[in-house]
Design goal:
The chain is α+β, with helices and mostly antiparallel strands. The protein folds into 2 domains: 175 residues, 3-Layer(aba) Sandwich (D-Maltodextrin-Binding Protein, domain 2), CATH 3.40.190; 141 residues, 3-Layer(aba) Sandwich (D-Maltodextrin-Binding Protein, domain 2), CATH 3.40.190. 42% of the residues lie in helices and 19% in strands. The longest helix has 23 residues. The C terminus is likely disordered.
Length: 325
């Protein structure tokens, strides 16, 4: 036990050293500084729908710390956020997404050199007790096959969309129910999708939707009734990654008409400062804040899991980028 504790301690210390070195060489750029040395300017953040509540709180706290900074937030599905940058050429200073691989697949290397995995989550099933009764892990399959109105996020725009399809595939395997995926697809076809998972909340609140799969953090933030799914299904556990790979979903790729295959894996969020950021220094300062103890506390308060160990991806490029003045 002592060896395990010492090893964990070393990993935590290593994470802190990496974060410090990752950001430590960065001095304030001319952009983002006022004459008195305080941060100032216009900070633009694109973020995933599931980050709406914690990132609003993070932005509010950041503005209290830096009163001369104006923060502007745009929310969309993670893949849609990325395509605002890659396809539409829109500029932002921070982009935070519900799947770190979206940055790797759609933004790197042209629009981003690096990204940081900073948070986690799990898939749950939100449902109406009035319409579906009480759901349990044992009766959920039968109840889903009887539902009249199930919606899901668009897998080409939002990771929650393809993660929903992955959950269906994993449920088929877990419950040993051949054909379950196809049956659920018929119940919830593409015509019953919305651009992002949070768009379905409004339909659920007016009783137009019986159930939908969404992140636990969002369900908790909105005080929704939900069923916790088995770990073999909910995409939350790093030690079950060999189970999750049995789920695969094809989604649109970088180029029009091209597709890529997303393979099931534990849910990990990522963020970066894009190359086209107009206020890159402000973006880096906000990333520092998100990774700080204060930032993590805000995330946890909103039911959003954070990672104990944080490692930048594309670290060498990031170090060089953050050293620019």
């Amino acid at each position: 036990m002592k060896d395990i504790q010492q090893r964990f301690l070393r990993e935590v210390v290593l994470s802190l050293v990496i974060i410090v070195s990752f950001f430590g060489g960065c001095q304030h750029d001319e952009d983002g500084d006022s004459e008195d040395g305080e941060l100032s300017g216009r900070l633009v953040i694109f973020h995933a729908g599931s980050l709406a509540v914690p990132f609003q709180d993070l932005a509010d706290e950041f503005k209290l710390l830096h009163p001369k900074v104006k923060v502007f937030i745009e929310m969309a599905g993670s893949r849609e956020c990325a395509r605002k940058v890659s396809d539409l050429g829109k500029s932002c200073d921070v982009i935070a997404l519900a799947d770190s691989k979206v940055i790797a697949n759609l933004l790197m290397p042209k629009y981003a050199d690096w990204y940081i995995e900073f948070a986690n989550n799990e898939m749950v099933l939100v449902y109406s007790r009035e319409k579906m009764g009480e759901l349990t892990v044992e009766n959920v399959v039968g109840k889903l096959l009887q539902t009249e109105s199930m919606y899901r996020a668009d897998p080409d725009l939002d990771p929650c969309g393809y993660r929903t399809l992955m959950v269906w595939q994993l449920m088929e395997r877990y419950y040993k129910h051949p054909g379950l995926y196809k049956k659920l697809w018929k119940i919830c076809p593409p015509s019953q999708t919305r651009p992002k998972e949070t768009d379905i909340l409004a339909l659920f609140e007016i009783s137009q939707v019986d159930c939908f799969f969404i992140y636990r953090s969002v369900a908790q933030q909105h005080h929704l009734n939900y069923l916790k799914l088995p770990d073999d299904v909910n995409l939350s556990q790093p030690d079950l990654k060999d189970t999750y790979v049995h789920a695969q979903v094809e989604v649109s790729g970088k180029q029009p008409g091209k597709t890529i295959v997303r393979i099931g894996e534990p849910i990990v969020y990522g963020l970066t400062v894009p190359k086209i950021a107009e206020e890159a220094n402000l973006g880096r300062e906000f990333v520092r804040f998100v990774l700080s103890e204060n930032g993590k506390a805000i995330m946890k308060k909103n039911g959003q899991g954070t990672l104990a160990r944080v490692f930048p991806k594309g670290y060498k490029d990031a170090k060089e980028l953050l050293s620019q003045r």
